[in-house]
Amino acid sequence: MKCNFLGIILLTGLFFTMTTTTQAQEITTKPKSEFWSKVRFGGGLGLNFGRNNTNITVAPSALYQPNQYVAFGPGLNYTYQKFGDFKTTLVGASAIVISNPLDFLQLSGEFEQLRVFQSVSGLPDIPNSWNTALFLGAGYRLNVGGNSLGAIGIRYNVLFDNNDSVYADAWQPFVRVYF
Questions:
Q1: Kind of pairing, strands 129-144 and 171-178?
Q2: Out of 18, 118, 123, 130, which residue is the most buried by the measure of CB atoms under 10 Å away?
Q3: What are the tens digits of pLDDT across the range 39-50?
Q4: Is the whole-model pTM more than 0.85?
Q5: Which of 55, 52, 51, 174 is nearest to 106 (CA)?
Q6: How far apart are CA 73 and CA 136, in angstroms?
Q7: How far out from the chain centre does Cα 19 lie?
Q8: Where would I find the beta strands (DSSP E) of the chain?
Q9: End-to-end distance of the chain based on CA atoms, in angstroms?
C-alpha cells in the first residue's frame, strides 16, 4: 500500500511539473506587444552661462508613433534661471502632437503648463504662479537613412501675453531629437 501511495504522489508531482513546464513554454512563445517598439525618447537640454547669468533646462519627453504620419506624447520640464539677484525656477509638463504630412515637413501642437517660482534677493517673496502656453509649430525633418531623428523649426505661442509670460517672445526656434 505504501508503494502505491508513493507512486501516486510521484506520478502526480511529475504530471504537475510537466504541465507547468508546458504552460511556461506557451506563455513565452506568445507574441510580444508592439507598443514599446513604437515609443521614441528624446527631449531637450539647455545650458547657458555668462557673467552673472545662469540658465539650465532639462526637458525629457517620449513620443508614441503609431504610424509614419503621427506621433504624440508627454514631456516634463525643469528650468533654473539666475540673472544677478533675480532667480526663477520653472517646473511643469507638456503634451505634444506631431504630424509628418510630407517627408521633409513636421507640424506640431504643444500644450505646456509650468509652475513659476521667482525670488529677488533682499525683497519680499514673489507669489508663485502658473504659466500656460499653446505652441503651434513647423519644422524641417531631419532624416538619416530613412529614419526621422527629429526636426528643426519655429513655433508660436498663441497664448502669449507680453505682460504675463515666462517667455520673452511668442516666437521660438526649436530643435527636437528622438531615438
A1: unpaired
A2: 118
A3: 999 988 889 888
A4: no
A5: 174
A6: 15
A7: 43
A8: 39-50, 53-64, 70-83, 86-102, 105-120, 129-144, 147-157, 171-178
A9: 67
